[in-house]
Task: structure prediction
Amino acid sequence: MNKLYIFLKYFFIVVWTVFVVAPFLWALTTSFKDFQSVNGGVTYIPWLDFEPNLEGWKVLIKSPAKGGVDIIEPYFNSLFVTCTASLISIILGTLSAYALSRYTFKAGFVKNNDITFFFISQRIMPPIVLSIPFFLFLSSINLLDSLTGLIVVYIVLLMPIAVWIMVDFFNKVPREIDETALIDGCNPYQAFLKVVLPNSIPGLIVAGMFCIIFGWIDFFFAFILTFTEVQLLPVKIVALNSSVTPWWSLSASALVSVAPLIIVAFIVERYLSKGNLSGAIK
Amino acid sequence: MAKIDLSNISHSYNPNDPNPVFALNPFSMTWENGNRYAILGPSGCGKTTMLNIVSGLVRPSAGRILFDDKDVTDLKTEDRNIAQVFQFPVIYNTMTVYENLAFPLKCRDFSKSKTDERVNSVAETLNLKSFLNSPARKLTADQKQLISLGRGLVREDVAAVLMDEPLTVIDPDLKFRLRRNLKEINEQYKTTLVYVTHDQNEAMTFADNIIVMSEGEVVQTGSPKELFERPNTTFVGYFIGSPAMNLFESEPSSNDSVKINNTLIKTNTNLSKLKTKNIKLGIRSEFIKIAKNQNENLVEVNVQKVEDLGNYKLITAKMGSLTIKSKVTRETEIPSQNVKLHIPAEKCCVYEDNKLI
Result:
């Protein structure tokens, strides 16, 4: 029984690993192929099956004048917009979540849970519904086709995620921790900053991770709200496509665009297993 | 260190409701500086609410709280200089044991050397010295509770240390030692200690004053001896002592006697002013002994069972439909038939409408 269990466990892990890793391998080999190798039947092993070259990668950093697409600027634009919007969303989201978790708000029939739901409801709407209001809004304040405009829109999109995750997290942090801090002589701000926040790092990391992922992969709003001045990576990658599909450079760009998320996943995984709340109380 | 006055305090969690439910009915009380108090009562009787009112976590619906005659009702928790230990250990997970203990002093801008001195002294008392530099989250539950306690004791000038069933998570052996430690700390530093518990033994061994509560009401305040021998209400008699006080429905008779099951029992209570006939006779099982040569206040009973509980024997006997419990020494011979029990008049408590006369 036990052996069967172990066998099955590893069997499924292997199957799952193949399932996850295979597309990456496919993209990795394809990125080193040229037109001939891509269209000349299935090949996997460089130097044996096909002759690898760096054309697919070079296109990404060559300037358009030399026939490249230059994703470097969009790449850093994306990094900047995602990180800034995530950071602001986390700060604002954490503050609102703490208030929603610890204090009672009441305006008519609207109570804490309704406010929390209001935040989440922003994500229930299909993005297409928001596109026209956002477009008009940004154009009215002259922020269309600018990094600042994108950051504003992304904060609107990411903050609900942060609020949602952090409300749930703070609800699990025992109130006695705040109360103890007050009794020990902190004012409510110090109690939040010195005691509650350090205890909430796992929650902050999870919220941060989701913000970064959702910010980084957004194509829709980046596509609608920018034209020529500013471009984000997902838009640029889609623009790579042409009448002859450049599989090699598409593969290469897919790999570079997914790289930051993989790095984030590795960092977060370590923190998540290390720091958790168990033991703060009881 | 302070004298704490609770004056006409009451609290309701829905004060704006037309029919507010009171978690705490109006009461007044004074806690003298340096004494040990226990608040005793079943779960949900308002003990924790009372504590939270003193520490400022809850603002009472009515009444004032005075620390050394200074009104602190509107003072925030952080400005009251009070310490509170909760049922489950609350520690600052991200800090070391030292940082945990030093936190209350740090918040109040104590100097480094003073902090060092206080933390070390408290750690010494609580046997935490060897853990000072380890992360607090790595410690066991009872060590964590010691840290919570330590944070309360680290301030010398603290008005009072409030403890909300602090020893629940601690194993019995350590519990005993800690209670003694707390007593020593109280004697050494003259800190007012207030201890909430639902365990009467804990209350009796710890405190020199016990406040018994029931359903939001303070039913009796007094020393363990007073509570044991002269319970104010049948609730206190029932709640304190193991087994609970014997309580018998009875009828008043002449000469301050009461009649239970057609047997006259003389009491030392003046029964001439009784308003109702709804009276109960209460007597501790500790005071009921097997009759030797007494000739009054005797009841004839059928012994149902005798339990040997180590240091004493517990007799359960029937007198008609009434059950009597009596605690006797292990050496006592218990006859199998015609057992007569003696109920000493001076230990009898008579209750009218469940209140002591």
Notes: Chain B has a mean pLDDT of 87. Chain B touches chain A at residues 55-57, 76-78, 81-84, 86, 88-95, 103-104, 107-108, 137, 141, 144, 148, 151, 169 (CB under 8 Å).
